[in-house]
Amino acid sequence: MISIFVVIIISAMWNFSVDYSERKSLLHGTHFNAAKWLSENLKEGETALIPNFHVFWSYDASLKNSTKHYGDVWKLSGIILQANTTEGEIIEARNHLREYIKSDQHLKYIVLDWVDLYSKNYFPIRNCIKFDESLQEVERFVHVFPTENNGTWPGGTIICEKISNPVS
Question: Per-residue pLDDT tens for 115-131?
């Protein structure tokens, strides 16, 4: 009898957590919308650079074959992201990302996230063109977290497109 009760409780908790993370979580909502957008807009042979790859892949497993994670590109710079990473090393990693964007012929979209550690270090100003003139914003999914004392903390996900002939 107790085991049936436990199974019912666990099942209800599971259903609640799935419903919350897929439909009510502001952060996951923007990731869900961005993953859906990428799935609809990435063409064969194109790739996207994404934060929080495990979240994106959980929403659409087909993205696994057409996405790369920021951490992979960061590792290619030879710099380890840790608490004592210097500003100079972060600037070096940003420059490496700019070169990666220019050299990867398959890269079409770069997804900026306001929470992901790599994304925050790569894009302190969450703006596509201010990071690199070869990027333009094509989509933005915004959420606002309520805070104590009736304040708010905005966040979101921005999708930048790599353009072939940037305007100088």
Answer: 766 777 777 777 888 88
